[in-house]
Amino acid sequence: MSVGTAGMVARQRFGEALKQERLNASTADGVRTKVKQTDAARAIKRKTVDRVSRLERGEAWPEPWELDALLKLYNADLATRVRLETMLSEGQAIAGAWWVEYEDEFPESLIEFVAYEDAAKSITTCAANVLPALLQTESYAKALTTGVAGSVLTPAVVDRSVELRRQRRRIFTKPTPTPVEFIFSEAALRQQIGGRDVMLEQLDSLIVDSASRTVSFRVLPFTAPVPSMHIVHLLEFGGESEKPITAFDSMTGMSFQKRPKEVRENRYYIESVRRLALSQLESIAAIKTIKKELSSA
Asked: Which of 31, 113, 190, 238 could share a disulfide with 121, CB 3.0–4.6 Å?
């Protein structure tokens, strides 16, 4: 197995957070002070900035004494220290993360996304005419995957794909569950993926999920003036120094947009679709109505 994608993501997140602390460094009385990489290098007893650059790019983990020296230089408060020390310990232990066993079977970008998804403090998924993976029942997921790619994937690979999707739902059962907002088209509720029985089971599952305090739905009705055209995820993280990212589903994995301008544009798109969608209560009522129609068909 190559270098773990999940570990790489954890190091990159940590490195970016450490860099932001250097850029936001201030004196004891709160006055911003410019700390250069050369200053950081001296603090960890290095003659060049190579080590600091590697840490900030997420290419290596710092030794505990290095992190301590850098945080003292940056005059980091206790909350920042605890957050970064937690990121460090959790990141270094990530070799045992559940998704590691899937790294050789699926695109690296998908495993990277799963790592971000697990680390996110909140997620918004704006889908189009298919239900988001986190909401799919096993029967629905299997029917969808077989229908789209069954000619090139073996039944065993289809089963593993379905298993991976179900495993991702662990974010709903963590000690602190991740809140997720799902926005999807009415078409996703009416398209009979796998047939009537599969869809009835799927609609029942959505109704159960709607009772969770961390799951919210917004259905874009057929009466909306425009459709939802992309499957885009907005992932936001806990620390102020951890910038949100967006990710798009594709046939061969995921594509990421992390630049602030790109994230702002994608956020605007999501907000535009949200404004056209039904409210949470209206969306649940729509799901129940569609289930009733399908049951009596």
From this structure: 238
